[in-house]
Amino acid sequence: MANSTTTASELTAEQVQTILVQPLEAQSQFLAAGPRVFDSASQIRIPKLGGPVTDPGWTGENEQIPERDASFDEVTLLPSTMKSVKILTRYSNELARQSVVALDAALQQRLVKDVADKLDTQFFSASGDGITTPKGMFGWAGTQTVAAVGAITLDALIDAWGKALSANVNLAALKWVMTPREFIKIRKLKDGQNRYQLQPDPTQPGGFTLFGSPVIVTARVPDTTGGTPTGRAALVDFSQIAVARDMAPSVKILDQTFGDYDQQAIRVVARYDLAPLNPEAVVVLSGITI
């Protein structure tokens, strides 16, 4: 019997492909939705006008014109107490030399993705204090609310539209934000003529519009906590959201720091903050039955 690769597998050379398979992961979506980004390494103060001047009134001939004061406000971002997202990974020089893929490039891509995901999760969250960590969109004060939605319906979505209209929001800039769970529920909704109401967007592959506004589907929208958790969704004018960016995810290769171990390291750092310029431009649908 002749020897073969089956009987003498120890003598065969293995072939390792020089590609690195990546897991399927969610895309970063908050910054892509179109908020206003301000680059600064220090605290940012964005002045804003307050409400309308009180009752300009009708004034007749030879009558004294009433004096009225204008009010002002501001949005503050990136206080000195705001923390950064940081991560560092070490690897040996032996591994770098013997790796069948470009190890530094693979790790760099992995770490930058992880930092971007951390930021995206925080931006869509209901957590954060605005002092040491950014306050997430579902934790903002002053937003409008369609409460106790229950089983999500088209009427609840129209109620959100109504609140956006009452706040004079730029309807052309509105976007829906919801989880895949809510997306599928709404995708199944039909009108009286058995037509689906969530329509594909021909300009965006795999994109959908709802009542004319694009739909952002992300699993990062948090449910409420407690014994009976409920879901959330939102109708948002992202042009009324300010994002302060001190550092986008920045990569540094440390080839000397751990020289006594014959190691290198990759460090990724990012620092952001965000806040609504006009909270009324965010309409939150809460109490959605899961």
Characterise this structure:
This protein is of the alpha+beta class and 290 residues long. The chain has one domain: phage-related protein like fold (Alpha-Beta Complex). The strands form 3 sheets. A 7-stranded mixed β-sheet has the order 5-13-10-6-9-8-7, covered by helices on one side. The longest helix has 21 residues. The N and C termini lie far apart (65 Å). 23% of the residues are buried. The model has no long low-confidence stretch (mean pLDDT 90).
Largest sheet composition = 7 strands, mixed
- Unreliably modeled segments: none
How many individual helices? Answer: 4
Give the terminus-to-terminus CA distance.
65 Å
Mass-distribution shape: flat
Number of domains: 1
Brief sketch in words of this structure:
With 290 residues, this protein is of the alpha+beta class.
Give structural attributes:
4-stranded mixed β-sheet, alpha+beta, 7-stranded mixed β-sheet, 290 residues, single chain
Topology:
Elements: E1 36-39, E2 44-49, E3 72-77, E4 85-92, H1 93-98, H2 103-123, E5 144-146, H3 154-166, E6 174-178, H4 180-187, E7 198-200, E8 208-210, E9 213-217, E10 231-237, E11 241-254, E12 263-276, E13 282-288
Parallel strand pairs: 1-11, 5-13, 6-9
Antiparallel strand pairs: 2-3, 4-12, 6-10, 7-8, 8-9, 10-13, 11-12
